């Protein structure tokens, strides 16, 4: 379908993947505005030309992680991606995130992504009761620094979409779940860090990562799942040596 309308204002051509199968695109024309984001463009298409277009967003300020899509071939958070940074000859192509089943248009099913968080051992079990004083973890503690460096994940799924190993091996836990496992492993309030390490290491866990860093390059909040996964690998070897 071609919804391009002639106009005197400079126009941006937007190709959006539609439906629930790969390969069907509709083309729209929207006015080129200063500082517009990719999410602004999708919203404008939905509000003015294609009311049935499905997509997700919530906060619009880079906090909730719900707006991620593939833009000109790369996974990105669309509410913080300016059109001027990604357009190619006045065209942007918008598709759903890779590596997750598609529901419709730009909406993917993230159940498997979050299921893997559980499989990676990411359930916090505290040692304190509600009657205990708050845990005093020094900001200078080495473990706290390691956890803090990886904690600001917004669950956007961009790293998961950028990971080739996820494409090849559907069982691979993926960068976000393993990044979270690393924070929990280093959380000094957690009752069973050995359980986290065991779950994050077994099967298609951290040892399946090839360490080439695509997740790290694409993470919109500059986390390094690659570094976290390397930490899990190191810790699992140390744990084996200690047992040995
Ligand atoms: S470094 Fe590991 S987790 Fe990150 S994209 Fe590559 S294989 Fe995936
Ligand atoms: S690690 Fe980064 S890219 Fe991956 S889900 Fe978290 S915020 Fe998104
Ligand atoms: S809409 Fe919340 S991060 Fe983009």
TrEMBL record:
Question: What transmembrane ranges does the database entry give?
Answer: none
Q: Which reaction equation describes what this protein catalyses?
A: a quinone + succinate = fumarate + a quinol
Care to name a GO molecular-function term for this sequence?
Answer: succinate dehydrogenase (quinone) activity
Q: What Gene3D superfamilies would the database entry show? A: 3.10.20.30, Alpha-helical ferredoxin
Which intervals hold domain 2Fe-2S ferredoxin-type?
A: 12-98
Pathway stated in the Swiss-Prot or TrEMBL entry: Carbohydrate metabolism; tricarboxylic acid cycle; fumarate from succinate (bacterial route): step 1/1
Which positions fall inside the 4Fe-4S ferredoxin-type domain?
A: 143-171
Q: Does the keyword DNA damage apply?
A: no
Note how many cofactor molecules are bound and how: Binds 1 [4Fe-4S] cluster.
Q: For this protein, what is the EC number?
A: 1.3.5.1
Q: What class of enzyme is it?
A: oxidoreductase
Q: Which cofactor does it need?
A: [4Fe-4S] cluster; [3Fe-4S] cluster; [2Fe-2S] cluster
| UniProt entry keywords in alphabetical sequence | 2Fe-2S, 3Fe-4S, 4Fe-4S, Iron, Iron-sulfur, Metal-binding, Oxidoreductase
PANTHER family given for it? SUCCINATE DEHYDROGENASE [UBIQUINONE] IRON-SULFUR SUBUNIT, MITOCHONDRIAL, SUCCINATE DEHYDROGENASE IRON-SULFUR PROTEIN
| NCBIfam families for this protein | dhsB
| The family this protein is said to belong to | Belongs to the succinate dehydrogenase/fumarate reductase iron-sulfur protein family.
Q: What is this protein called?
A: Succinate dehydrogenase iron-sulfur subunit
């Amino acid at each position: 379908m071609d919804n391009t309308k002639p106009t005197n204002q400079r126009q941006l051509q937007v190709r959006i993947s539609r439906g629930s199968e790969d390969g069907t695109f509709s083309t729209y024309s929207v006015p080129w505005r200063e500082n517009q984001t990719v999410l602004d463009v999708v919203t404008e298409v939905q509000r003015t030309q294609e009311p049935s277009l499905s997509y997700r967003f919530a906060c619009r300020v880079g906090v909730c992680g719900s707006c991620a899509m593939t833009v000109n071939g790369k996974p990105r958070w669309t509410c913080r991606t300016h059109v001027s940074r990604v357009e190619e000859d006045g065209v942007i192509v918008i598709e759903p995130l890779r590596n997750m089943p598609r529901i419709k248009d730009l909406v993917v099913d993230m159940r498997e992504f979050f299921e893997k968080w559980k499989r990676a051992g990411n359930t916090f079990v505290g040692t304190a009761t509600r009657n205990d004083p708050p845990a005093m973890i020094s900001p200078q503690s080495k473990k706290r620094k390691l956890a803090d460096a990886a904690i600001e994940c917004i669950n956007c799924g961009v790293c998961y979409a950028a990971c080739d190993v996820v494409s090849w091996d559907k069982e691979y836990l993926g960068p976000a779940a393993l990044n979270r496992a690393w924070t929990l492993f280093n959380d000094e309030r957690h009752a069973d860090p050995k359980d986290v390490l065991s779950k994050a290491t077994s099967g298609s866990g951290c040892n399946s990562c090839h360490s080439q860093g695509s997740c790290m390059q694409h993470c919109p909040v500059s986390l390094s799942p690659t570094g976290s996964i390397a930490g899990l690998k190191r810790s699992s070897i140390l744990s084996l040596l200690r047992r040995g």
